[in-house]
């Protein structure tokens, strides 16, 4: 009887998870449907999920009506650059907090984590002023999107630090005996052993940077420097919005993220299983 009860409970959980998963796919399916409709079909009642005559040319019109390829290249350049440098700087900071010994290390780490409680809106105006011509002069340049975002992140540093604490110190001690420097230990021993956590942090950074909207909107003034999120918002006119083209562009902008998660699924699972083993 207890075994039947447990099996019944597991079955209920499985069915519930499947239903919630299918429910979460509804907005995505509606985007696909809208991207293949005519403008008149978008507002038909009752709404139709599967259009009778799919308008595949909507995806081509996105490139013809807007510089979508330029938006995609800008986004890819900014996202890849930020992902590489933020992952590297976060890993370096995590190694310092996990392995190096210096006065006030733990208190400084707690202070660093405290920055997570500061809303981004609080630092928005000071950051904008710093980018103006009075100081750095980075308005309407990619440096404004890349440099501030490449200087590490408290959450990513915390994740990587937790993983570094789980690595055996004997590896570093042996390297020190052989005459290795801290930089050699970090790059030749620690990083190769941390591929899983670095992969998951890279995915977090990639998705966050790819979907960033408010800061690029404030920084970029000319359409040739727009990223995808800002470019897609420009497709919405004051009096009229081309919904099929907008949904087609949105789906194409989601494709790299979906592909990334599929390719690095194994590393994501490994990173989640190892994160937080040791505090």
Task: Give the helices and strands, then pairings.
Blueprint: H1 2-24, H2 26-35, H3 39-42, H4 57-65, H5 68-98, H6 105-114, H7 120-131, H8 143-146, H9 154-166, H10 169-177, H11 182-190, H12 195-210, H13 214-219, H14 228-234, H15 243-263, H16 265-274
Helix pairs in contact: 2-15, 4-15, 5-9, 5-12, 9-12, 12-16
Essential attributes:
70% helix, 16 helices, 2 domains, MetI-like fold, globular, 279 residues
Structure description:
The structure is a single chain. Helix 9 runs antiparallel to helix 12. This protein is 70% helix and 0% strand. It is globular, with a radius of gyration of 24 Å. The chain has 2 domains: 55 residues; 219 residues, MetI-like (MetI-like fold), CATH 1.10.3720. It has 279 residues and is an all-alpha fold.
Regarding CATH, which class of the largest domain? Mainly Alpha
Q: From the alpha-carbon coordinates, what is the Rg to the nearest angstrom?
A: 24 Å
- Encode the helix/strand succession as letters: HHHHHHHHHHHHHHHH
Q: Structural class of the helix and strand makeup?
A: mainly alpha
Q: How would you sum up this structure in a few lines?
A:
With 279 residues, this protein is an all-alpha fold. Helix content is 70%, strand content 0%.
